Amino acid sequence: MNLEPTLAQLRAKAPGMRPRIAVVLGSGWDAFSGQLHDTVRIPYADLAGFPMAGVAGHRGELLLARFAGHAVAVMSGRQHAYETGAVDAMALPLRALHAMGCDTLVQTNAAGSLDPAMLPGSLMLVSDHINLPQRSPLVGQVGPQRFVDMAKAYDPDLRERAQALALDLGLRLHEGVYLWAMGPQFETPAEIRAFAMLGATAVGMSTVPETIIARHAGMRVLALSLITNMAAGLSDETLSHAHTLAQAQAASERAGAMLAALIQAIATEKDHHA
Ligand code: HPA
């Protein structure tokens, strides 16, 4: 993978910018971008190797900006595996941001809940994931490094910090296992019953490939889910993308506050002085 053309474009658009934190904004998490300063907006179409993000509610642009005085790289929108079948769509963007200096990836998404006590509007910290499709963005990688240890894929220290911040903010932050379903169709009630038996707390169509790519690159990963609906069969509502976006909108303020506190805390860690 040749990162040089992309890195040259990034250096030209935001000279001297050296972000340490990469953030992926999924459905419902866009409010955070309003808190950025000195924002350089770069449509993915202007960056070599960045994929189009073709889903409503996702803008498809990279924001190189400052937040609370620290440089951050915010990806507003991601390409999902269900768009083209490619599970490594986000590999080049993530590797480019890593090469720019990002050592931490904070991911956000919208997800359905399998836990009757975790209602729409809830926030969930991802403690672990289930790669149900068993597809890997690392196919084609060579060398022993491809055999990535996934035992602590979602950084335990960052998770602890996130819970402490949630307590400070007076927010309930659920914690659980995110199961990646390929989509784009929603799940059947029978599938959801099966996923519950496998140990899933929430289900969604993203995040897992990016976590694998980031762990392979050596980045720390943290992921937050905004629960937009009860998973299929757990309520009478009809699932749709519009419903996901409407629910996400309703919870976006809390989601934005949680994310802002988290990024600030990570940015001010003692070795994060970008
Ligand atoms: N299933 C899969 N993906 C989702 C869901 C769901 O119920 N809600 C939001 N993203």
Q: What do you see in this structure?
A:
- With 274 residues, the protein is of the alpha/beta class.
- The protein has a single domain, classed as Rossmann fold, CATH 3.40.50.
- The chain is 31% helix and 24% strand.
- It has a 5-stranded mixed barrel with strand order 5-8-7-6-9.
- Helix 3 (91-100) runs parallel beside helix 6.
- The longest helix is centred in the last third of the chain and has 27 residues, at 241-267.
Topology (SSEs and partners):
Elements: H1 4-13, E1 21-25, E2 37-43, E3 61-67, E4 70-76, H2 81-84, H3 91-100, E5 104-113, E6 123-131, H4 156-169, E7 173-180, H5 189-198, E8 202-204, H6 208-217, E9 220-230, H7 241-267
Parallel strand pairs: 1-4, 1-5, 5-9, 6-7, 7-8
Antiparallel strand pairs: 2-3, 3-4, 5-8, 6-9
Helix pairs in contact: 3-6, 4-7
The chain binds hypoxanthine (HPA).
In a few lines, what is going on in this structure?
The protein is of the alpha/beta class. It has helices spanning 4-13, 81-84, 91-100, 156-169, 189-198, 208-217, 241-267; strands at 21-25, 37-43, 61-67, 70-76, 104-113, 123-131, 173-180, 202-204, 220-230.
Give descriptors for this structure.
274 residues; 9 strands; 5-stranded mixed beta barrel; alpha/beta; Rossmann fold; binds hypoxanthine; 7 helices
List each distinct ligand once. Answer: hypoxanthine
Question: What is the CATH superfamily?
Answer: Nucleoside phosphorylase domain
What is the count of structural domains?
Answer: 1
CATH architecture: 3-Layer(aba) Sandwich
Specify the biggest β-sheet. Answer: 5 strands, mixed, barrel
What is the top-level CATH class?
A: Alpha Beta
Question: The CATH topology, please?
Answer: Rossmann fold
Radius of gyration: 17 Å
Rounded to the nearest angstrom, the distance between the terminal CA atoms is: 26 Å
Helix content: 25-40%
Strand arrangement, major sheet = 5-8-7-6-9
Structural class: alpha/beta
Average of per-residue pLDDT values? 92
Q: How many β-strand stretches?
A: 9
Shape from CA axes? globular
β-sheet strand percentage = 15-25%
H-E order:
HEEEEHHEEHEHEHEH
